[in-house]
Amino acid sequence: ALPICAEPTSTEAELAAMMVGRSVELKVTKQAPRIGEERLVISGLTVASASGAVAVDHLDLTVRGGEIIVIAGVQGNGQSELAEALLGTMTPVGGTITLDVTRLSPAKTLGAGLGYVPEDRNKDGLIGDFSIAQNLVLDNLDHFSVGGNLKLGQINQHAAKLVEEFDIRTDSYAQPARSLSGGNQQKVVLARELSRPLSLLLANQPTRGVDVGAIEFLHNRIVAERDRGTAVLIISTELDEVESLADRIAVMYRGRIVGVVGPDTPRDVLGLMMAGIDHDDAAAITEQEDQA
Fold first, then answer.
1. Beta 200-204 vs 114-117: how paired, if at all?
2. Are 226 and 68 in contact (CB under 8 A)?
3. 98 DSSP assignment
4. Residue 179: what are its φ and ψ, rounded to 5°?
5. Of 59, 91, 94, 128, which one's alpha carbon is 20 to 30 angstroms from that of 154?
6. Which of 94-108, 140-154, 244-258 has the lowest mean pLDDT?
7. Over the stretch 219-259, which tens digit does the pLDDT of each residue have?
8. What pLDDT does residue 277 have?
9. C-alpha span between 175 and 168 (Å, rounded)
10. How many secondary structure helices (H) and strands (E) does the chain include?
11. Which of 218, 226, 195 is nearest to 110 (CA)?
């Protein structure tokens, strides 16, 4: 049989449905945020890249409980260095972070309530040869071991629960993580991070390289975590994702926050801000172009 081809007039939603075999919500439906107390306060943060160049340049940002802030920008403007500084794998040159978490080891930072979804799941999020069950407890081994011995029964029960809750498509949680599709690997990473109480969820490119069905699921879980009162900081280069998730958008350019705007900000304005133009000037430029 010949493959089914979409008509040229097919909408994005129709194309997505053809890809996953069901209707897909391309934009998250969410209630207005219930803003809580400050959970992350970054002040004057400066971070040098591996080459010694300034990657994050006196950056200021505050994230509160119950809100999602998405950092938008072209890749390579200091987003990765910012994420690593927050995790504790890079030491800032200057500035402060709430609770001074940069002085803690990554393990202690995670233990203090930071959930971390890395930019590259295969490099930093999973151990491919370990089982799905093992990967689901990687950053919480103290809870699943005693006297240096793993509590295998509890690990398996934990895995069975999360595989069902996060709809991880697998024949067995004993399978190696590398056997999963990209979307299901990302579900494993997010499931692990959301399986413990969090103060802040930091997710760097949370849906990179996954199918539209997995994107829908991951976005909904991130919003659900926000609704539990967790502060959420997303780093994304995908404007669809930025607009879908953000309660506020912080545009980053050359290591600085150019401005913080609402999710209804026009894309052409966001694009100019991502090139380093502040919001008022970007809005004026686009208004002039519309009138021309």
1. parallel
2. yes
3. G
4. -80, -10
5. 128
6. 94-108
7. 999 999 999 999 999 999 999 999 999 999 999 999 999 99
8. 96
9. 12
10. 10, 11
11. 195
Residue 241 CA to residue 263 CA, distance in Å, equals: 11
Distance CA(118)–CA(126), nearest Å, equals: 10
Contact partners, residue 55, CB within 8 Å, separation at least 6: 47, 48, 49, 78, 80, 81, 82, 255
Q: Does 112 have pLDDT greater than 80?
A: no
Look at residues 287, 267, 270 and name the one whose alpha carbon lies nearest to residue 278: 270
Euclidean distance between CA atoms 272 and 140, whole angstroms = 42
**Angle between helix 12-20 and 212-227 (nearest 10):** 100
Q: How far apart are CA 285 and CA 9, in angstroms?
A: 32
Dig out the tokens for 274 from the structure: 């991502």
CA distance 251 to 262: 11
Question: If we measure between CA atoms, which residue out of 242, 237, 269 comes closest to residue 70?
Answer: 242
In whole angstroms, give the CA distance from residue 123 to residue 177: 12
CA distance 79 to 18: 34
Q: Is pTM beyond 0.85 here?
A: yes
Q: How much of the chain exceeds pLDDT 90, in percent?
A: 74
List pLDDT tens digits, range 127-144: 999 999 999 999 888 888
